[in-house]
Design brief:
The protein has 241 residues and is of the alpha+beta class. The chain has three domains: 1-42; 44-57 and 172-240, 2-Layer Sandwich (Translation Initiation Factor IF3); 60-169, Protein of unknown function (DUF541), domain 2 (Alpha-Beta Plaits, 2-Layer Sandwich). The chain is built from six helices and nine strands. The protein has helices at 2-40, 74-93, 112-115, 138-146, 149-152, 173-198, and strands spanning 44-57, 60-71, 102-104, 108-111, 125-135, 167-169, 202-211, 215-218, 226-240. Strands 2, 3, 4, 5 and 6 form a five-stranded antiparallel beta sheet that branches. Strands 1, 7, 8 and 9 form a four-stranded antiparallel beta sheet that branches.
């Protein structure tokens, strides 16, 4: 019985010693972590941004040629729409636009007697027809938009604006991304080097770098086919004495 009691006491002593060792190790690890953190807090970092902007021309355009026609005889209206759509398509083809780049939407018909109740209308029906071009021949479309007087002379008054906007796009962003990122990063480094020189320090390695989002906007409202591409990179550099 005494041997068993002695054994239990010995076991308890070993357990207590183990707990002390564990607490010591944890405490030592905590002190080591604090020391590393303290050493890291001495690092000096400068955060800079680099900008790159580039002006490009759209390489794709979606352009609707829309017009409205009114009348009281719906069948006769459809014949007029078909004839005028043919005139627009010929107008486009003469400029080098291919059949695969032209689409004709189903005409939209409004019965003014039922949908516009209470208003006095000249015609019983108003039909809207849209011939749309989707092409990379941007220059041709720009020219055609200025020559729509030729359609007006044939009785086709096209409409535009918010309902039928012409949309110009730049689709070759991947072709210019690498060089733009390179330029933005170079500009960021030049800024960081000047800061380091002003603070009588030397520029170290990059700690962290973040590429900003590319944005494409219209240069101005008068030339929507001219685009402004922009990217900003953020870079953190270490500073050394």
């Amino acid at each position: 019985m005494e041997e068993k009691n002695v054994g239990k006491q010995g076991h308890g002593s070993y357990l207590g010693l183990g707990c002390c060792l564990m607490v010591g190790l944890i405490g030592g690890a905590s002190l080591l972590g604090n020391a590393i953190e303290a050493a890291g807090s001495d690092d000096r970092v400068v955060s800079v941004k680099g900008l790159c902007e580039r002006e490009v021309k759209a390489d794709n355009v979606i352009c609707p040629f829309a017009y409205k026609e009114g009348g009281d005889d719906l069948q006769q209206l459809y014949r007029v729409i078909e004839r005028k759509n043919g005139i627009i398509i010929d107008f486009l083809k003469e400029a080098g636009i291919g059949d695969e780049e032209i689409s004709v939407a189903a005409p939209k018909v409004v019965d003014t007697r039922t949908e516009w109740s209470g208003s006095q209308n000249r015609y019983a029906y108003i039909v809207t027809s849209v011939v749309t071009v989707c092409t990379d021949k941007v220059d041709e479309i720009i020219r055609l938009q200025s020559e729509q007087g030729a359609l007006l002379q044939q009785g086709i008054a096209t409409t535009s604006g918010w309902e039928f906007p012409t949309v110009y796009s730049f689709t070759k962003l991947n072709d210019i991304k690498p060089s733009m990122i390179e330029t933005a990063t170079k500009n960021a480094r030049e800024t960081a080097e000047k800061f380091a020189a002003d603070s009588e320090s030397k520029l170290g390695k990059i700690k962290r770098a973040t590429q900003g989002q590319f944005t494409i906007t219209e240069r101005d409202s008068n030339t929507p086919y001219m685009k402004n591409v922009r990217v900003v990179t953020s870079v953190d550099y270490y500073l050394k004495d």
